[in-house]
TrEMBL record:
Coiled-coil intervals, chain numbering: none
Domain of life the protein comes from: Bacteria
Lineage of source species: Bacteria, Pseudomonadati, Bacteroidota, Flavobacteriia, Flavobacteriales
SUPFAM superfamilies with a match to the protein in the record: Glyoxalase/Bleomycin resistance protein/Dihydroxybiphenyl dioxygenase
Protein name in the entry: VOC domain-containing protein
Domain called VOC: residue spans: 2-113
Pfam families linked: Glyoxalase
Endpoints of the signal sequence: none
Gene3D superfamilies in alphabetical order: 2,3-Dihydroxybiphenyl 1,2-Dioxygenase, domain 1
Length: 125
């Protein structure tokens, strides 16, 4: 089994498209204003957005995008006026993370974990 597709809701798909294009995702399906699909520049995963009239309540959605050159990526996004809630920081779970939100308030975590994503020292067998 392989997780290869995630779809998130949006009140304004057009605005969300510009945000995710700025992050570096590649638009491959455009059925605006109700649906769009991206592919990640690395790997085989796809990511889509669909139009909704109301966003989910509570804490919402958290989306993680990994890049080996996290600090350079964040620096380039800052130059494009992307606002971060937290700049890159080393975490106790051995990941380096930066936090921001998309236009719909979904939590975006840009990170680098390397081998520790699937094989942390505390992994169970």
């Amino acid at each position: 089994m392989n997780l290869n597709q995630i779809t998130i809701p949006s009140l304004d798909v057009k605005k969300a498209v510009e945000f995710y294009k700025t992050l570096g995702l590649l638009l491959i399906v455009d059925a605006s204003p109700r649906y769009v699909r991206f592919e990640c520049p690395d790997g085989d995963a796809t990511f889509s957005i669909h139009q909704v009239d109301k966003l989910p309540n509570e804490t919402g959605i958290s989306i993680y995008f990994e890049d080996e050159n996290l600090d350079d990526w964040v620096s380039s996004l800052l130059k494009k006026d992307i606002t971060f809630k937290q700049l890159p920081e080393d975490k106790m779970w051995l990941w380096r993370e930066a936090h921001l939100q998309d236009p719909d308030g979904n939590n975006i975590i840009l990170y680098h974990a390397g081998k520790n994503r699937k094989n942390p020292p505390w992994r169970i067998d």
